[in-house]
Design goal:
The protein is an alpha+beta fold and 260 residues long. It has one domain: CNF1/YfiH-like putative cysteine hydrolases. It is 22% helix and 22% strand. It contains 7 helices and 13 strands.
Length: 260
């Protein structure tokens, strides 16, 4: 079947942050693709039960807006970071200093974080569910970026993408205790008790991520004002729908021929 997609049908979010202009980034939404319910419509995940040919078509639509095909990771809620010298598909963080290489993180409630050094010479992206966040995936992504940078002390910028919001992410005492025993300080309002549900809390992934990033010297942090659960027109949400698609957060350094 031939699918006709109107030009410009894809709706993107463009991060607003202080990265150099040749560092490009965008977040897809659920709009503009061909997948049918419950994956409607721009599902980019090939592991969620959607028709493979529809995912391929959706990714081709996205590719038109990118310099190269994204590096699609197999995300496992861990802390492995893929680097140019040890490129691996099974990882939850990825870094690069190679112009034109498009880094991609797919989510549907977990927190995507985009990184760039202040000069724009090194970029990174990470997938942070609560487990990966607690185990240090953001810190390890930053450390891998510094290993690639000409100056390991160069400031790193971070942008927090769309994730489940602080009024929607209900967790148990086990999650709160996991962060407590990690011995990384976090704001007291990162876990708000749910009065009518003893032992339950609303967790704030954005606050938890900010505290983790600051432990590795990242102070320039923006974003963090989304909720995948409540913004159902724009985002997939596993917590809300169970069976659902995935959207992507992407970052790349423009090839030199484009920068001129």
């Amino acid at each position: 079947m031939t699918h006709q997609i109107p030009e410009g049908a894809l709706l993107f979010i463009r991060p607003q942050w202080a990265a150099p202009s040749f560092v490009q980034s965008l977040v897809t939404t659920r709009e503009g693709g061909i997948s049918e319910f419950p994956y409607h419509s721009l599902n980019l995940g090939d592991h969620v039960g959607d028709l493979p040919e529809d995912v391929v078509f959706n990714r081709a639509l996205l590719h038109k807006h990118l310099p190269t095909e994204p590096i699609w990771l197999k995300q496992v809620h861990g802390t492995i970071v893929s680097t140019p010298s040890s490129r691996t598909c099974e990882a939850d963080g990825i870094v690069s200093n190679i112009p034109g290489e498009v880094l991609a993180i797919m989510t549907a409630d977990c927190l995507p974080v985009l990184f760039a050094t202040q000069s724009g010479g090194v970029i990174g992206a990470a997938h942070a569910g609560w487990r990966g966040l607690c185990q240090g995936v953001l810190e390890k992504t930053a450390q891998s970026m510094r290993a690639l940078a000409n100056d390991p002390n160069e400031p790193i910028l971070a942008w927090l993408g769309p994730a489940i919001g602080p009024t929607a992410f209900e967790v148990g005492l086990d999650v709160k205790e996991a962060f407590e025993v990690s011995n990384i300080p976090y704001p007291s309002n990162a876990f708000i008790p749910i009065i009518e549900k003893p032992g339950k809390y609303f967790a704030n992934l954005y606050l938890l991520a900010q505290s983790r990033l600051k432990t590795v010297g990242i102070e320039k942090i923006t974003g963090g004002d989304f909720c995948t659960v409540n913004q159902s027109n724009h985002f997939f949400s596993y917590r809300r729908d169970g069976v659902t698609g995935r959207f992507a957060s992407l970052i790349w350094i423009e090839p030199k021929k484009i920068r001129a």
